[in-house]
Task: structure prediction
Amino acid sequence: MHKNSKILNNKKMVKKISILGVVINFLLAILKFGVGIFSKSQAMISDSLHSLEDMLSCILTLIGVKISFKGKDNLHPLGYGKSEYIMSFIISIFMIIAAFTMVKETISSVYNNVSVYPNIWLILICVINIFVKLCFYIYINCISKKNSNILIRVSKVDQRNDILICLSILVSTILGYYGIHMFDSIISILIALWIFFSAVNLFRVSYNILIDKNLNNDKLDVIKKSIKTYNEVKDILFLFAKPIGQKYIIIVNIKMDKDKSLESIHLINKQIKEEILRKYEYVQDVIIMVNPY
Result:
């Protein structure tokens, strides 16, 4: 009952963050785009696209969390945990496309010699954005300490990036008052590169889970040591992990004395499984196969 309550609470927190993210990013995207067009600030227009991408991320997060928290069924005996990573994979693709679009538009504005028109609205929208995103970042950071959901981590990084981006735009706007307009284009390209590398990192994490990348050797070695503490285990033939979302299923093949009874083998297997599940929170299940020794 306690476990189900925790899962339900996590689901509510993720949904709350996502809904807030959709509303906040939609309003900021409209304000940024309007001010960006009026001021001819390519950096602000680029940031408005980034806010739209953030809004899309939140929508996909809502879809992903709805699917991922569904229980196991006959068609999906391991559950729907990977749906979060499917959504984060899709988000990373949109981020990469947005980054290339920003670079293309910035190069076009430089080629056509479009100058930024510095004004108080650019400064005001930057200050508003920084304040709103800072509050949202602090809120998500508090939740992320209790919930390791990848989509929450993605949202946290997005808020941090947006704060830094708007700080950069604020600097470029101030420099624009002194006739240094090229800095706006430089900031726009830097924003695009930032989004691109964040997207590549997100793509890598999601891709590794979706192709069933094994646990790192250090964690596997620790689990092996736990299993080898049992005198009945003569050898470990193989051990690997299969990701099913945020957690892993451990699959291990061990050697045991062939003269042992089925009941005693079952008891030892149960003890090994319970110990691994108790010690390592990243493990959801353990499948043990026994070979005679």
About this structure: The chain has a mean pLDDT of 80.
